[in-house]
Fold this protein.
Amino acid sequence: MIGDFDSANRGLIEKYSNKEKYPNIDIINFDKIKDLTDYELALKHSFTFNPNEIFMFGATGSFFDHSLANIILLVKYYSKNIKLKIITSNSSIYCIKEGVTIVGMAKARISLFPFESVEDIKLEGFQYEFKKNNLSPFDFSISNVILSNNAIISFKSGVFLIILFDREGGEIMQNG
């Protein structure tokens, strides 16, 4: 557990502070006045364990500013070596900086948001294509549908945020 715990349930903090009952739970307390959010502190701490993937739960909560900041963290801490994914009650949110193949997700609903300019975009196996090859952050695709069990997103350069809805299973694999 990590953060300033300003909005945490005190009973839970006390409960998990009991090292006899919970010897594997560390509590790392930070001052309320700091430059990073609690979520970013936790994310940075998780990197010290050298993970292959990190699932971020509770990242899109009651405060939209915190939700947006947590989504931006996907871009800020993107790495080819660590798959970061925000899990919500009905979706998964990813950042991609290179082409991907989405496997086993036919009929899934997907939204694509260029986070910066994207050059030479191509979609294969989707209901809707982009009408132009180069995109700005204002060119997005809402509620597109994956038609193929091997849908491909390819582009030369840029950054996308992808939101996959209401689907379990499947996998996003980097191309190349």
